[in-house]
């Protein structure tokens, strides 16, 4: 398995490198990430649980590394994280069902 602490450190270093080359781009991404902090309607923990579920559905290891740490710091329990991951699993399965239906539609059109 991956050493997530080392990986997160390496990713953040490379993100820092990107920030030096494209500071406005990174500022824009940071603004998006911090937008929920202003209203705080969901709270940090819920936002991080959502971020983890999204990280799984987008298959982003860097996002997993960063948001896993943030979720734990925000007080998320392993059980809460597992529930959020269950949502991600369901959405991925649901997407496979939808794309299976689309595939069948394509096959029907080919046969017509």
TrEMBL record:
<dbReference type="InterPro" id="IPR003779">
    <property type="entry name" value="CMD-like"/>
</dbReference>
<dbReference type="GO" id="GO:0051920">
    <property type="term" value="F:peroxiredoxin activity"/>
</dbReference>
<keyword id="KW-0560">Oxidoreductase</keyword>
<dbReference type="InterPro" id="IPR029032">
    <property type="entry name" value="AhpD-like"/>
</dbReference>
<dbReference type="InterPro" id="IPR004675">
    <property type="entry name" value="AhpD_core"/>
</dbReference>
<keyword id="KW-0575">Peroxidase</keyword>
<protein>
    <submittedName>
        <fullName>Alkylhydroperoxidase AhpD family core domain protein</fullName>
    </submittedName>
</protein>
<feature type="domain" description="Carboxymuconolactone decarboxylase-like">
    <location>
        <begin position="23"/>
        <end position="103"/>
    </location>
</feature>
<dbReference type="Pfam" id="PF02627">
    <property type="entry name" value="CMD"/>
</dbReference>
């Amino acid at each position: 398995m991956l050493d997530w602490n080392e990986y997160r450190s390496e990713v953040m270093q490379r993100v820092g490198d990107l920030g030096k080359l494209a500071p406005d781009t990174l500022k824009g991404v940071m603004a998006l990430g911090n937008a929920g902090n202003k209203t705080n309607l969901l709270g940090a923990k819920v936002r991080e649980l959502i971020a983890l579920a999204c990280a799984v559905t987008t298959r982003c290891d860097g996002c997993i590394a960063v948001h896993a740490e943030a979720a734990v710091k925000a007080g998320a329990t392993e059980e809460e994280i597992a529930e959020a991951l269950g949502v991600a699993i369901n959405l991925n399965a649901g997407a496979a069902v939808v794309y299976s239906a689309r595939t069948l539609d394509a096959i029907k059109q080919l046969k017509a």
